[in-house]
From TrEMBL:
InterPro entries: ADH-like_N, Chloroplast_QOR, ER
Natural source organism: Populus tomentosa
Residues of the Enoyl reductase (ER) domain: 16-357
SMART domains, per database record: PKS_ER
Example of a GO MF term: oxidoreductase activity
One Pfam family recorded for the sequence: ADH_N
Protein name as annotated: Enoyl reductase (ER) domain-containing protein
């Protein structure tokens, strides 16, 4: 497809919100060795996309303008696409296959404070992690980070998995130690912002394990979160919800923290002796708390989680959706030609489940 143009969405400066997005035509990329060129079917929008537009990683990222959003240290490129062409070395896919793909390819891990500091200060590392944006008709992905999409899983159903679903999976299995086959000791889990993109996956995945799930959300979503399997649900605007106290009096072995603005002092009295808070959107205060707890040998820990998914984990989640054991709740769907509507919806901050864009 060399020389052909494609529709893409970009912005040319920090700030501007939805009004700052522009629809343009840019060259179609080419698949190199071990890569596949993909045509967009559906993609999910993540809060980090518009936060980067606001400048949360300034001046390190974006490295240049204009910028096609959708891929960053905090928001990985996950979407369902229709395969178009494959590069040399690709034998597991053929032209026309439908796949789920992840663009970025940094390691999956929870960083310690020193590593986070180096990462934040090292432009070379950021360049390794950040690749081309995904709000475009065509993108290039690594074959190792692309998995087949079975016909039982629609593009819209699965579009959130490579980012939100895998963030929930990583937090629960690696950081919280939950075994999703139901084995292992029973754990008490708290999930904040449980009606959101990551939260609604986290509730469902946690209940596949041997867990008791307490969840927080707004009043309008209490019944929805219960329908996902949560054992008890708190309205975060009530005194009990703000204090994060389990109605049954349980102490939490792990907190999957998907919200923002909750101080450590609120979590600590609600944690079990060795309880931990896994913060999926850690800021400077979370990093400082993490370091302090490590230095003081506290049994209660805060774990800042920076996640990039693995192909085998993505395949696992796709199969859960196929088997009806996991579902993506769709807040709204927007055509790529109206990306600014999806952008404004995400900025509003009250989406239930995932915001989806389709070609």
């Amino acid at each position: 497809m060399a020389g052909k143009l494609m529709h893409a969405v970009q912005y040319s400066s920090y700030g501007g919100g939805a009004a700052g997005l522009k629809h343009v035509e840019v060259p179609v990329p080419s698949a190199k060795r071990d890569e596949v060129l993909l045509k967009l079917e559906a993609t999910s929008l993540n809060a980090a996309d518009w936060k980067i537009q606001k400048g949360i990683l300034r001046p390190l990222f974006p490295r240049r303008f204009p910028y096609i959003p959708g891929d960053s240290l905090l928001s990985l490129c996950g979407f369902f696409v229709r395969g178009v062409e494959v590069g040399p070395g690709v034998t597991n896919f053929k032209t026309g296959d439908k796949v789920v793909a992840i663009l970025s390819h940094c390691l999956v891990k929870a960083f310690d404070a020193y590593e986070f500091f180096l990462l934040a200060c090292n432009i070379a590392n950021l360049r390794h992690i950040i690749e081309s944006g995904r709000l475009a008709e065509f993108v290039v992905a690594k074959k190792s980070l692309s998995v087949a999409r079975p016909p039982e899983v629609s593009a819209a159903e699965g579009a959130g998995l490579p980012v939100a679903g895998l963030t929930a999976h990583q937090a629960l299995t690696q950081s919280a130690g939950v075994k999703l086959d139901g084995s292992g000791n029973r754990k008490n889990i708290l999930i904040t912002a449980a009606s959101g993109g990551v939260g609604h996956y986290a509730v469902q995945l946690a209940k596949l394990g041997n867990t008791h799930v307490t969840a927080t959300c707004g009043a309008r979503n209490i019944e929805f979160v219960k329908s996902l399997g949560a054992d008890e649900v708190l309205d975060y605007k009530t005194p009990e919800g703000a204090a994060l106290k389990s109605p049954s009096g349980k102490k939490y072995d792990a907190v999957i923290h998907c919200a923002a603005g909750v101080p450590w002092s609120t979590f600590e009295p609600n944690l079990s002796e060795n309880g931990k808070v896994i913060d999926i959107t850690p800021g400077p205060s979370a990093i400082m708390t993490f370091a302090f707890k490590k230095l003081t040998f506290s049994k209660k820990q805060l774990v800042p989680l920076f996640m990039t998914p693995k192909g085998e984990n993505l395949n696992y989640l796709v199969n859960l959706v196929k088997e009806g054991k996991l579902k993506t709740v769709i807040d709204s769907e927007h055509p790529l030609s109206r990306a600014e509507d999806a952008w404004a919806n995400s900025i509003d901050g009250h989406a239930t489940g995932k915001i989806i864009m389709e070609q």
